[in-house]
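USER: My hope is that you can spare some time for a protein that puzzles me. I am handing you a single protein, as its sequence and its fold in token form. Walk me, if you will, through where the backbone shape changes along the chain. The protein I mean follows directly.
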Amino acid sequence: MNNFSFGRACGCSLRETPHSVVMGCQEELLVEKICDLYEKISSLENLKPSKDVDMLFTQLVLTCIPPISIDVTKLNNKVQEIRSKLIRLCGEAEGFLESHFSTLLGSFENPLHNLNIFPYYSNYRKLSHLEFTILSQHCTQVPTRVAFVGSGPLPLTSIVLASYHLTTASFHNYDIDPSANSMANRLVESDPDLSKRMFFHTTNIFDVSSALKDYDVVFLAALVGMDAEEKVRVIDHLAKYMAPGALLMLRSAHGARAFLYPVVDPCHVRGFEVLSIFHPTDEVINSVVIARKVSKPVHALDHGIGSRIFPCKCSETRAFNPLNQLNMIEELAVEEHLMK
């Protein structure tokens, strides 16, 4: 479709609620471009790495990065449907990309010495550093056992955290795909340190119960749970079996970046006390939500918000500015006695 018409593809109205003319135009242009890219991406023969695939997804990411204030929940149903499909396409493409580079890295004698050939390695370094810094603000002691749910064929978060930040902790990586775990294991098996501290479990996370209580921190990958309902099911399962006081690190998205990854609504993090939410403003796409497993059962209210979850405070999220070290962690205040 050469001359893409926003009205034809996305419906008559961009929003279902009134909005200012200036912001409405800005949003409309943004969503029109995203819908145009969706049409082109969905018409590709496949999403494996190629010149066309790389070009279109690069354009999509660059379109979504600028900090335009857009609430994707208020867009019309047609755009919501496109957003949902686009997130799944992004997930599929990301899986192909990681598998491609994991296989390539696995061909080296020392795979971990060559991680920088992955084009987004620096992004993972920045995101992992951000997550470690956030984690440090809320840990009473250094974590010794960490789980990563949805680690995939290229478990860069676990590798970076284990190599540079949590250098004595063991990492248990969970993925439902045996081939992904096989590729991931090949990357660390030749490393004398990580091969002893990094483990890979091929299983559905819903089949993991008592083992979850052994972890000080559980990371949930952004694409585990592609929509709100799926994400809530996973979080509820973790809340049921994680140890009281354990920390849950969730990856979310904010603004236009929500066309790339699912959004974690703090009100849906039941069974946990949401401590802080962080929104990067640089090329790191994912927002970070950190929550602590409550020590007592949470009884959900009629509107689905737990009695020890603080949605009003947690919805007032702040941006992370990587250029300002003094403001590196812009943390939402939650009374200290409530965190204990």
Observations:
- The chain has two domains: 6-105, 119-339.
- Strands lie at 145-149, 170-175, 198-202, 217-220, 247-252, 272-280, 287-293, 318-320.
- Residues 1-23, 298-340 have pLDDT under 50 and may be disordered.
- The longest helix spans residues 77-106.
